Amino acid sequence: MENSKGNIVSRLSYSFGAFGNDLLFGLLSTYFIMFVTTHLFNSGNKAQDAKMIGFITLIIFFLRFVELAIDPFIGNAIDNTHTRWGKFKPWVVVGGVLGPAALVILFTDFGGLTKSNPMLYLILFAILYIMMDILYSFKDIAFWSMIPALSFDSREREKTATFARIGSNIGGGTIGIVVMPLVLLFSLNANQGTGDSRGWFWFALIIGCAAALSAVVVGLGTKEVDSDLRKNKKPTTFKGVFHVLMHNDQLMWLSLAYGLYAIGMSLTNSFELYYFTFILGDASKFSILALINTIVGLAAISIFPALAKKWNRRNVFLVAIALMLIGLAVFSLANSSLILVLVAAELFFIPQPLIFLVALMTITDSVEYGQLKLGHRDESLTLSVRPLLDKLAGAISNLVVGITAVAASMTAGATAATMTNHDRFIFKFAMLGVPAVFILVGAFVFFKKVKLDEKMHASIVDELERTWAKDFDSDDESESTGSRPNSKTELSYYAPVAGEVIPLEQVSDTVFSTGSMGRGFAIKPSDGRVYAPFDGIIEATFSTRHTVGLVSENKIATLIHIGIGTVKMKGTGFITYFEPGQRVSQGELLIDFWSPAIKKAGLDDTVIAVITNSDNLSEFEIENKGEVTKNDIVLTLEKK
Length: 640
Known about the structure:
In the N-terminal section; belongs to the sodium:galactoside symporter (TC 2.A.2) family. The chain is α+β, with helices and mostly antiparallel strands. The chain is built from 20 helices and 14 strands.
């Protein structure tokens, strides 16, 4: 009960951390550039103000690219952190408190330097901005890397990730809801609904304090699980990410498709508050859109599994892209109609969580694709690609927003009434036309080049299962397990699950029944718990969680496969309690599975156990053919 209470506290703390993380992300990526272009520079000299906005925009663009190159080194620094509080929490707290503080200072003119000494202001701005961005990256990378460190239980990880997605969505929506009410509340001059610099500063201060508080809550409310498995990892480098991209063609094409889409999506999202301010002429109405987005975003996340199951991911992606393009078309016709603007914005927004999940799941599947193609697993490198693409899209988006704000005269003192038809055309082209091109090209690349779907991934996993243990017949020291040579040749193989033992030949999957995967047996399970059949090292894991590969110290390799065709379930109904490379003892719980879920999917729940290198055995004797439990020996094995 105490453990359950601790898990709930951890989930809620992490969820609040995600809430604060997205508050800060919104403040940095969307609303800071709005402040820069419309309120920071107000000298009365429009040419000078436009010039300063251009300099700031270029500085931000350049520094964001510098920070992208630094990211891998930040990840390595976090990996090599060892404190009594863990490796992630110190960076979450330090970066999560100092980063917002630096960003809040950037919402000022540094005591009037923008007018009295513009050059000094630009120098100080660049220094403070890169410091802030690095601190933010330390916090962001550490925060999203924490989930595996919070629990070895895959179900607990999924719950934590789900709570985080909810907190993240609410955080991203909340800042949109409160931005203009807070700005106008603290402004001395409403400026026809756009507020003043004082109002923007107090808005940044409140959001910064909330973000900092959320980081402290993560530090106090979560506990990292210490494990040797996370030590001495191969460093992630920018060169390493590039190498993986160049050799994993599916990841490369998906990255290109998602990167183009992300640029288009970020552009339109960043311009929405400008639309309410300079086209509708009422920035306060933006809160209505943000509130609707928050509710709709939560609904979109919840319906994705059902949509993906019914239509498959490629069809979900197709429908989502079509809706976004329709939304852009409606936006182009909306002009000053609030109803049409809200309809257009929702048509554009609803698909975004769906496309994100499609991209995330396909990138995850590309881990196994790369493993099959390249012969090694690059999980951390592969999964680091998507955050890099999002940051790249944000950097490009900020550059285009800054240039457009100057070109369309949306700077200090501008209002909807001062916008000319030419200004509106420039703005709409940047907000609607340019994103449409990026999204269309990204979609074309996805459908033309990305072939990795659910069916292909299932066949890849099947192939990896067949081939993963073919090399475990060496008498040399194993690099992956670190085990020492063992002169013992005999091995007792205990039942991995309780139930009735049946001959392998009776299994309905010919891949197993013909013996092509190795000799073994099957069990009709009477419960849903899979245990380690002997002492060994976890050598093969899959994102689908329906199978596990285990190698003994004398190099006997076994594959335990739950159900037939269960790779299609994509991990639903399976809970794992191990990490790759983990040393386990006989009888240790490895997997929980839910037979009703397997049967509901129309699949067989038979548990299959094979010795994948059985050709290297001189003895293979089945000791038990009836009902067994985890304490019963089923096989006696001896190496040649």
